[in-house]
Task: structure prediction
Amino acid sequence: MSTAGKVIKCKAAVAWEPNKPVVIEEIEVAPPQANEVRIKIVATGVCHTDLYHLFEGMHKDGFPAVLGHEGAGIVESVGPGVTEFQPGDKVIPLFISQCRECRFCKNPKTNQCENGWAADSHDVMALAESRFTCKGRKVLQFMGTSTFSEYTVMNQMAVAKIDPAAPLDKVCLLGCGVCTGYGAAVNTAKVEPGSTCAVFGLGAVGLAAVMGCKAAGAKRIIAVDINPDKFEKAKVFGATDFVNPKDHNKPISQVLMEMTGGGVDYSLECIGNVECMRSALESCVPGWGVSVIVGWTDLHDVATRPINLMLGRTWTGCLFGGFKGKDGIPGMVKAYLDKKVKLDEFITHNMTLDQVNDAIELLKKGKSIRTVMRFSPQ
Result:
């Protein structure tokens, strides 16, 4: 029986309040309105940004919400005015819109968009409007996506259509972590062949950054993490050297300076820690070193001495690896299908939505790289 035009009741993981376990609830998902599509989510990754909202950001206006922003699914129905999608299309929801009309979308220098939740709600991490209700209450859509739900409703400007051959339980990782790290290396840092790179933090984003550095032709890729268990995994993605800051009694920037004869050409901070951001910058060679802030945080200022920039280093950052979503994700899906980009190797655990709190705990304790939660057969 067709569900188009009707309210769908389905399971979702609702975060009723910060710093508490999420709860599996039956929610109501309204039909798509003008320029919207309703998506049946097939699989979703669990990303540190979900944990950030729940345990670190904890903005009082950001709850209750359905978390999740790294998903993939199939279009169930479309609202009036939608021409780009039709029921049955395989898609990846985007947490950064691409309206193609605003000044940012028209500028090749950025992937920002003036439309969508991120334009003015980055602190709350959700728009006030939502198609979700639960127990008579409105439930927010986290990062405009909410992939910890069996169904979600998105504006068509925040959805990327992908190859129908793509396995959704793998390519869902392109919805955030893998594109974020990989793109930081190839799009933002613009790593050059023969260069030396340092990647701080070996979660999914950091490992994807390592993979991006290798794809760009870096000669030496130094992986930095306080968890030595992650070093073998980093080798799979192309790391050549490993440094555990706990093994040294001097600043990590000094260690890297000494290892490289004056500093790395590129550094990427993939943790979301302002002290590590400073260390990453100060690990770069003066004159031309580039340091990219990749890890998400919005709690503290970041600082360094002016001389560190006056000597010619560049300090920059990116969201979603600089990819314009509608344009970039289909290419990354193709790269995976052509075996030019790894995805399977990021997945350490497979679970169901009912196990979401277990997946959150694994990531919180550093015991997983990516857990993929599967909802239904593709």
